[in-house]
Design brief:
By secondary structure, this protein is an alpha+beta fold. About 20% of the residues lie in helices and about 35% in strands.
């Protein structure tokens, strides 16, 4: 992998985790640091509310930020970055993201606070790597009518509610019937999402450079229903079999959810554009895995 320079950056969007007061001094310093280098900081609305008012501060909503800056700087954890990534994908802008973790090392927000300014300088000077991560495009239809369109970075999950019994899901890859799963639900994950809910449900870890999707049943009634890894250009279709007692919800990245009704069909395929993730450190994917999963520790 060789460094991929960013196009000239004149505006950097800054987004912090909601109510992350520990970020306040860093938000102020970042604004000054960027301004001194001729780069305009643009704060996300809720992030700007953490700071004292300033009449010359540029502020935009998260959705507007996704379209109106040259790169995004996210302060928080993986969930904060995923929310911004989904907004960028919906906007179709393809701007890259640099994630800075407040706390332990993240799978996506892998830059630590001591690495912040060095990493940002590498990104602005074209000495950073840009990784492309597959995203998912999901569509829910009912009798040919499109009900929802959404994009997800980690996973699309069809699951029962807390009050519901096990659910029945017929799974197709393209037009070929694969299996009927009786379970608490089903996860369709990207390689990036393989270390999220998929991992908790017993699915495999898949390196992000692998062009694949993972289908993982959640607590299946039949133990022979196992996770399946399929090509990344596949289309997965899921048809729930429901009656009045079933309560099913369709969740994207754990951040947005839609009720599923009788006759609905959920289709999941590769999104048109990948996430562009700025990778300014020399830390490898396997080093991140060892750190996060504490491999080799007693």
């Amino acid at each position: 992998m060789s460094p991929t320079p960013l196009p000239p950056v004149s505006r950097v969007g800054i987004l912090a985790k909601a109510q992350l007061r520990a970020a306040i001094p860093h938000l102020l310093e970042l604004g000054e640091w960027l301004t001194a280098r001729g780069v305009h900081p643009v704060y996300e609305t809720a992030t700007a509310e953490l700071l004292a008012p300033a009449k010359d501060r540029l502020v935009q909503t998260k959705r507007a930020l996704a379209s109106e800056v040259d790169m995004a700087l996210v302060l928080g954890g993986d969930g904060t970055l995923i929310g911004m990534a989904d907004c960028i994908a919906e906007a179709g802008s393809g701007i890259p993201i640099l994630g800075v973790n407040f706390g332990s090392l993240g799978f996506l927000t892998e830059v630590t606070l001591p690495e912040l300014y060095r990493s940002l300088e590498h990104a602005l000077n074209g000495r950073a790597y840009i990784e492309e991560r597959m995203m998912l495009r999901t569509t829910t239809t009912n009798r040919g009518e499109v009900l929802t369109h959404s994009i997800a970075l980690n996973d699309a999950v069809i699951t029962k509610t807390a009050r519901s019994r096990m659910i029945d899901l017929s799974v197709y890859v393209a037009d070929e019937f694969v299996t009927r799963v009786r379970a608490d639900g089903l996860i369709i994950a990207t390689p990036t999402g393989s270390t999220a809910y998929n991992l908790s449900a017993g699915g495999p870890i898949v390196q992000p450079t692998v062009d694949a999707m993972i289908i993982t049943p959640i607590a299946p009634h039949t133990l022979t229903n196992r996770p399946i890894v399929i090509p990344g250009n596949s289309t997965v279709r899921v048809q729930p079999t429901m009656d009045a007692r079933d309560e099913i919800v369709f969740t994207l990245d754990g951040q947005s959810a839609f009720p599923v009704h009788p006759g609905d069909e959920i289709s999941v395929s590769r999104a048109a554009k990948p996430l562009r993730l700025i990778h300014p450190t020399t830390r490898s994917y396997f080093e991140v895995l060892r750190t996060k999963l504490k491999w080799g520790e007693r």
